[in-house]
């Protein structure tokens, strides 16, 4: 039997544990030798490396839609710290370093998040939608991803069709999304909203010579010990500026997560044989 965390046995200790972890989290970054991106620029850099979007409201969560409204509020707060952020040569981007004080004047609202393995409402809930979008931008660039953790469990379907396994969970004090700029060019994050979508644009001060295509292979669903898991390979192809493939394909990673909702009819689920 899996041992329970102390905070699961004594939930009242969770706020104290979180404060301790957050303090150590940022103290560690101040001593790790990285130069973290912090300068923001209002004017756009001239070239677009990649742009993507996601839908703001997910109708398939099974929870009150007020939590989706709260999530959008949280995303807009975080975006104020991210929009225009420059990642200069040699600098490292950290999601939490960038948005650390986003809620200093106006607090985050309760959005959906996972606490001790269960979906719950918590201040700042829903910020993973922002980290997911940023991770997608970074995968389509020459920036080097130095820290990323995928979600262990997908609690509900995506709001729109997207690549599987292209996500990055963030939890202040525990997990971060980081990239390092080892190129000679500067990149800029832009975040834009309309009524239904959040857009992410990664701009640069050099004309991109290469673009990138992210794709899935070997997508399978497996049932093990009564639970369903998704396994997928995430590949990246390099494409020249004229649209011609450059013949450089790289397996980025293998992703595995538990599926916490009922899959659509017709999706094959393979039974994993016991050892």
TrEMBL record:
InterPro entries: Glycopeptide_resist_protein (IPR052913), Vancomycin_resist_VanW (IPR007391). It comes from the Bacteria. This is Glycopeptide resistance accessory protein VanW. It comes from Zhenpiania hominis. The gene is vanW.
